[in-house]
Amino acid sequence: MPTPSMEDYIEQIYILMEQKGYARVSDIAENLQVHPSSVTKMVQKLDKDEYLKYEKYRGLILTEKGEQVGKRLVYRHKLLEDFLRIIGVEEKNIYQDVEGIEHHMSWNSIDRIGNLVQYFQEDQDRKEALIKIQQQTKS
């Protein structure tokens, strides 16, 4: 099981691979706002734990295990963003809030939030009723 820090790296690598077809140490460092040397150390650990294959000066690729974890982490992130939007969290706070909570929830809780998000997405009337309740509590 990856640590929260490992999850951040796997998620970022997965996103870069999806967007660009590759993930360089410099891109990972820039996106995570860490030093390239920190990325290299983590990439070596992720290689050892079989989440990716890394060859010095040649690059890295996610293993099947790493891709599965990365896909699930990206799903979790997007799901939590959707959930916070549905419950009326201000857009400017969503990214920071997701980063603060995503590593502290069980996958069971994530799955239940997924059910709730689906419930509200399937019927516009449900969303409107929730928005009405939110507006009443603001007054």
TrEMBL record:
Record localization: Cytoplasm
Any one biological process term the GO annotation gives: intracellular manganese ion homeostasis
GO terms, molecular function: DNA binding; DNA-binding transcription factor activity; manganese ion binding; protein dimerization activity
GO annotations of cellular component type: cytoplasm
Function: Central regulator of manganese homeostasis.
UniProt similarity note: Belongs to the DtxR/MntR family.
Protein name, UniProt field: HTH-type transcriptional regulator MntR
Gene: mntR
